[in-house]
Each structure stands twice: as C-alpha cells, then as structure tokens.
Amino acid sequence: MYNFFRLLPVAALLSLGAATATPVATPPAQAQQCPTYEDGLVDGQDHKANLAATYGAGTPEYEQALNTAIANARYNARNAECPTYWRGYVQGLSN
C-alpha cells in the first residue's frame, strides 16, 4: 500500500507531462483602442437628449437624472481607462 502512494504522484506526472509540456501559442496582446473626446461629446449629447425625451426637459426628474449622469461620468473620467472620452461625455451632458 505504501508503494502505491509513492507511485501515484509519479504516474500522474508521467500521464500529464505530455499535455502540460507543450507550449500553447497565444496571440500577441493588443493595445486597447480608446474612443476619442469627440466620441464622448456626441454620446453625452445623445444621452442628454434621451433624458430630455424620457423625463421632459426642465422637470425635477430630468434635472436629477442629468445630475446623476454627470456625476457618474465625472467619476469615470477620473477612474476609467479612457479618461479623455469621459471628459467629452461630461462636456456633452453639460452643454
């Protein structure tokens, strides 16, 4: 029984050795393409128009939704990987 437990790891290594020894070809890592400031500006303007259509421009609900969207976009401008896009988004919401 003792010999069985000594041979078990060796057998596992031998049976898995061929599968794990072969290197796997992976594609090269590609740099992330961030959207531009202008893309963010257009998206922000579209979101603002959508909020106006949903809540009615000038209503308290619209103002609250717009302020929330601006706060979220400002947070993303500070913490996201594409801050330039989010700065444009904030500008689109603010105009």
Characterise the protein shown here.
Keywords: Signal. Residues 1-21 form the signal peptide. The protein contains four helices and no strands. By secondary structure, it is mainly α. The protein has a domain at 33-95. The mean pLDDT is 85.
Helix content: over 70%
Q: How would you characterize the largest beta sheet? A: none
User: How large a portion of the residues is in β-strands, by DSSP E?
Assistant: under 5%
Question: How large is the count of helical segments?
Answer: 4
Number of strands: 0
First and last CA, distance: 79 Å
Instruction: Report the C-alpha radius of gyration, rounded.
Output: 27 Å
Specify the overall morphology.
elongated
Following the backbone from N to C, one meets helices and strands in this order, namely HHHH
Keywords: Signal
Signal peptide: 1-21
Layout of secondary structure:
Blueprint: H1 2-21, H2 37-55, H3 60-79, H4 83-94
